[in-house]
């Protein structure tokens, strides 16, 4: 009896691991396929063994994807998109985190009459799909002559990030006892000095969570970049889709997959370096919101 | 008032840019969209009132029906599959697995990839000439058919597959955190009573996790409602408009099809769908909170 029980336990354990590993293979497969495809020369792809390792691995597809793949008449590869994405990313991330932190601090530590209602009114924005408010925003930017500029795409990123950033920081600052603020007030500190000298130094963790979240989120955006960045500031995701889906002539699968991987690499690096913060970020809304 | 201002003036000043942005960009823009949906605006907005014309047109529009039907199927299936897979993974990972950290990293990395990347990768995997269909045929099943991308009936399920791959890790992480919050005494108590494990999960753990499960449902439903990039990258809405979704319909009609009025009406219906989705979930949360404090 005891023996049979033990055998059953071992079998259950094996089944458990088999399921978990099979799931792992399912999740890893697209990354593997992208990688081996991007390393194959064109004729190897035509032979058609998608899952096979490359016989003669080469980085040619990466070089072409980076520097000479075409969308229409533009044959500069995906590198201009990489630069655009970086230029959009830095101010968008910094401004959205800074504004989110200030808002969260003002709403959580300065509990003026109506602060909760105001917080609710801002955080409702978390749920609003871009599609519902995008058109009038385009009109507004066109009206002030900024549609399609760097300013418009950065502004839009900051505005759409604001509700969640405010929520994230408000939850964090609400966990800090307000005796601290009160004591500082008695000592003659003001709104901004408390923020910069007391609150921010305590916020390293939540700042990192916000940083990782905003980096991946803004880098991975497609829709806002498509609508608001215009011709000059197309982010990498938009250029990637153009290279793969709009290209004419013979389809270059290895170049397509190399371009896809190149676009995926920056946020993946951030993810692998910052696992804990990333997980906290993506689950933050769920566990507290 | 001045006493309040002296005390909170700086906080108000600090908040005012964001409040202004939220008021204009969210509330103001929604109001504008609602108004435009009652006009005959085409390429440029017009402001003379036209009543329900656009909504009537939307009701007769076959493409809109396909998009809404797809939202129902895609959204419903996305919720079911991500929750089923995410919950299984969370429960299994919670059994003192040695390589838990590694597996968690693997299950969640798709979340760090954009929907464009996700869509393009799966478009390649599902490519009938090189991908799954070809692989299985080469294994000795020459009549094997698996061409979802080229089939009007199945194209939305191709997108579903990619979306499940992308989103299950999030459900897993949220539910795993929920499982770890459950008091371990419950497990000891039920073991003493000899209650089978699956019954503990079904009758004790699931009810306790109801608030987090609700959150997962809402997150996935929101994802389906917002979906645009993944459709563009994978199928472009095709073949025909068989894999269209409301989030793509609005953008196509506002942009290349230059029909602002119809796009606005579609956007308003998206918004109504959102409200229909959020109100029940808030009721669930509210009741849970009350039950928690009572």
What keywords describe this structure?
heterodimer; A: 289 residues; mainly alpha; MetI-like fold; 14 helices; B: mainly alpha; globular
Please give a structural write-up:
The complex is a heterodimer of chains A (289) and B (294). Chain A has 14 helices and no strands. By secondary structure, chain A is mainly alpha-helical. Chain A folds into two domains: 2-58; 79-288, MetI-like fold (Orthogonal Bundle). Chain A is flat and about 75 Å long. The model of chain A has no long low-confidence stretch (mean pLDDT 90). By secondary structure, chain B is mainly alpha-helical. Chain B has one domain (53-293): MetI-like (MetI-like fold), CATH 1.10.3720. Helices cover 74% and strands 0% of the residues of chain B. Chain B has 13 helices and no strands. Chain B has helices spanning 2-36, 53-60, 62-93, 100-108, 115-125, 132-138, 155-181, 184-193, 197-208, 210-226, 229-234, 246-254, 260-293. Chain B is globular and about 70 Å long. The mean pLDDT of chain B is 90. The interface between A and B is large, with 86 and 90 residues.
How much of the sequence lies in strands of chain B comes to under 5%
Helix-strand makeup class of chain B:
mainly alpha
Poorly predicted regions of chain B: none
The SS-based structural class of chain A is: mainly alpha
List the uncertain runs of chain A. none
Outline type of chain B: globular
Cα(first) to Cα(last) distance of chain A is 50 Å
**Highest-level CATH class of chain B:** Mainly Alpha
- Helical content class of chain B: over 70%
What oligomeric arrangement do these chains adopt?
Answer: heterodimer
CATH H-tier superfamily of chain B:
MetI-like
Identify the CATH architecture of the largest domain in chain A. Orthogonal Bundle
| CATH topology category name of the largest domain in chain A | MetI-like fold
| Highest-level CATH class of the largest domain in chain A | Mainly Alpha
